[in-house]
Every structure is written in C-alpha cells, then in structure tokens.
Amino acid sequence: MEVISNGWIKLHRELLDHWVYDDPEKLKIWITLLSKASHKKRKVPINYQVIDIQPGELIFGTIKFAEAIGVSRDKLYKTVKMFEKDGMIEYDTTTYKNKFSIIRILNWEKYQNQKGKSPSYQQKEGIDQKGSIRGSEGGSKEDKRRAEGEHTESKTNKNVKNVKNVKENSSSENDSDTQSGGDEFSATKKENGHYDYPEEFERIYNLYPYQRGNKLAGWRKWAATRRRGVSEEDLIKAVKAYAAKCKREGTEEQWVMHIKKFFGPDRYYETYLNKNSGPVGEDKEKERLNAAKKRLEERAAKYE
Question: Tens digits of per-residue pLDDT, 201-241?
C-alpha cells in the first residue's frame, strides 16, 4: 500500500456532526483513507500491471492497511463496508480479481478541489492562513491593494460555490426527473449531511440484496420510478423476486446489480414483474453479467 506523506487535505467542519466522528477508530480509518487518496491522475505499477489512479482513488489492501494503522482486518473491513453503504466511498473489489482493491472517495472534488489557492500561495500574495491581510515590510501600497482585492474575490467565489453546492444537493445529478419535488417520495437532508429517506424507500432498500449500491443514487431512481406511477406493491414484488433469484442462484455480492441500475432508465425491475413492456428481459440480464465478466477478463489479460 502506497503511503503519501506530503501535501495536505481539507476537512469540512460538518465532520464534527457526522457519525464517524463519534468513534475514534472509524475516524482514524476515514482520515487515513482521505490522506492516502491520490490528488491527481497518475499511473502506479503493481505486480507487472500499470494501474490508472484517478483523483480521490487509492489502492487498498486490508492486510497492509490494517497493520499500518493498528486495527484488526475484521474491524477495518466492516468499517469500510459501512462507509460504502453510507455513500461515502465506492469499494471496487472485482476489477483486479481480489489481488487488491480500489477505493474511490465520493464527492472528492466537492471537498478536496485543488483549484483554490494553497496556504503557501496565499502567504506569498500577502494573505495569512486566517484570511487577513498582512502588511509585509517593504511591500508597496499597490501590492497590498492587489492582495486585498484577490482575497475579497476569493471569498466571493467561495460563497457563490457554497450556494451552488446547496442547490445541487437538493436535486439529482444530470437527472431532471429525480429532483426533489417536496412530495411523499422526497428525502430531507439533515444538518450532518445525511438524508432522511421516506419510510417506503427504507423498506425497499432493506429488502434489496446486500443493500448493494449507493443509497442516495438508489433513492433518486426509485423516486423517479414512483413519480411515473409505478406502485409500491409492484416495486416491492420486483425487489423480492430479484432477491429470491440471487439467493436461489447463489449470486455473490460483487455480481448483484446496483440499486440505482435496478430502478434506472432500463427498468430492470420490470423483468421481475413478468412484464413485457420494459426494454429489459431475462436474456438481457444474462448479457449484462457476461459482459461485466468479459470486461474484467480483458483488463486482466491486457497487463499479463
């Protein structure tokens, strides 16, 4: 496991109200994941393979990670799965066939955007880390005015960005029909950044195999489906049928469809209602699984 020992990360104050803050061990794991995530695109050679790492991603192995921070592998794995279910990360254990995993920090760009000026840059421009203007010795009045003007502009841009983030959080990402409409299918964002979901969706989510996939994204697709007039009874029937199929066939967690895809535009749920109106049938579900397995095999063969 690669150790990134230089540079810095940003921690938002809302972490103080997050459930992870109340458990020192889980907090340690979370901050370590943030610290070890890459801040830029790069290539990492591992076992005669070259891995493309994106910003917010890190190569993850439970044995070395657990040893490095002094926690048991069991606690580490359970905590990482908690992060995944809560929509904090994506935990990719399948792409490299269990040789190692990739963890993706979700919302990385939102909280770790590197476009802002670093503390060292601000100090050069005459702004200290508390955001006040320093009257550096020998500096001209023009330099001070320029520094003050840039600082004011920076604060204005941050305020605009914060307003934009609030608006974006109340709507879906590039999916206009899943926007919160203030109806019975809407979710309410709490002060700690988490969401209160409708009881109906919670029932659906708890029935879904392994609660696979990002919960927030799943809610958005589910809400869009309900707003199109599909009944709660039908969706519960579809989820139960899919769960029964997974159990009957012994489907491993890594091959279970993400919940957002199940309720997404392809309407996979219709397959389990015995309806022919949807674009997806049993054959297409098999094609999806075969295509996913083939992609994994091709990626592995590429670096052999």
Answer: 999 999 999 887 788 989 999 999 999 999 999 999 999 99
Say how far apart CA 219 and CA 26 lie, in whole Å.
Answer: 26
Residue extents of the structural domains in the chain:
13-111, 117-135+142-169, 176-302
Quickly count: other Cβ atoms within 10 Å of residue 116's Cβ. Answer: 13
| pLDDT at position 284 | 60
| pLDDT tens-place string over residues 47-81 | 778 888 889 899 888 888 999 889 998 899 999 99
Which fold, 13-111?
Arc Repressor Mutant, subunit A (1.10.10)
In terms of DSSP H, where are the helices of the chain? 24-36, 62-69, 73-85, 108-112, 119-124, 141-169, 199-207, 215-227, 232-249, 259-262, 282-302
Residue with tokens 């670096």: 303
> Measured between alpha carbons, how far is residue 296 from residues 56, 250, 289, 291, 299 in Å?
22, 20, 11, 9, 5
Phi/psi region, residue 48 (left: phi>0; alpha: psi -120 to 50; beta: rest), is left
Residues 6+ apart with CB under 8 A from 132: none
Instruction: Please tell me the distance from the alpha carbon of residue 89 to that of residue 103, in angstroms, as a whole number.
Output: 7
Residue 251 in tokens: 């489907």
**How, if at all, do strands 57-60 and 49-53 pair?**
unpaired
